[in-house]
Target: GTP cyclohydrolase 1
Amino acid sequence: MEEHFRAIIEAIGEDPQRNGLLRTPHRAAKAMGFLTHGYRQDLGEIVNGAIFESSNDEMVLVRNIELYSLCEHHLLPFIGKAHVAYLPAGRVIGLSKIPRIVDMYARRLQIQENLTQQIGNCIAEVTGANGVAVVIEAQHLCAMMRGVQKQNSSMVTSMMLGRFREDARTREEFLSLVRGG
Ligand SMILES: Nc1nc2c(ncn2[C@@H]2O[C@H](COP(=O)(O)OP(=O)(O)OP(=O)(O)O)[C@@H](O)[C@H]2O)c(=O)[nH]1
Ligand SMILES: [Zn+2]
Model:
C-alpha cells in the first residue's frame, strides 16, 4: 500500500521526496490499514463467549455509539452515531460487544444502508433475539467537502427485525428512547 500512496502523491503533482512527505506513504498505509481493520476481525473472537442467560425479555438499547466508516464510492469518511436495540429471548450479550460489532462492520468500505443491515443481521444471529433495531445517523464527507457540498444534511438509515418490524408500539418505544438523548 505504501508504494501506491507514493504513486498517488506523485499523481497529485507533489514531490514524495520532499522532507514533509518522506514518511507519508508509510503513515498513510498504516492509517488506511487501521480504518479497514474490520476485514481482519473475527466475530467469534469479538463476542468471546460473552452471551449470558437472562430471564429479562425487556428491550435493551445501546445508543449514541460513535461510528467512523469509509464510503466505498469515494474512500472518504462518514461519521455519526448508531443506536442498537434488541429484545432478549433467554440470553443477553455483553454490553461492550455491541459497539465492537458496530466497529467490525464500520471499519470497512461501506455504504450506510449495508452497514446498518449487516449490524442488524449480526446482532440478531448472535443473540437469537425476538427483535433487533438499528438506526444510524451519519454525515458523509463526500457530500460535504466535495460533490454537492451540503454541510448540514445527515443520512438516517434503519433496520427493524422481528418484533420491531411487526409491532408498531415496540418500534415507537425504541424510537422515543433513541430521541431521549
Ligand atoms: N446510498 C448511499 N449513497 C452514498 C453513500 N455514500 C456515498 N454515496 C453516494 O454515492 C453516489 C455515487 O454517485 P456517482 O455519480 O457515481 O459519483 P460522483 O460523481 O462522485 O457523485 P457526486 O457525489 O454526486 O459528485 C453519490 O450520490 C454519493 O452521495 C451511502 O452510504 N449510501
Ligand atoms: Zn462517498
Q: What stands out?
A: Residues 112-127 form the longest helix (16 residues). The two ends are 41 Å apart (CA to CA). The pocket of guanosine-5'-triphosphate (ligand 1) is lined by residues 71, 73, 111-113, 140, 142-143, 147-148 (CB under 6 Å). The chain has two domains: 1-36, 44-180.
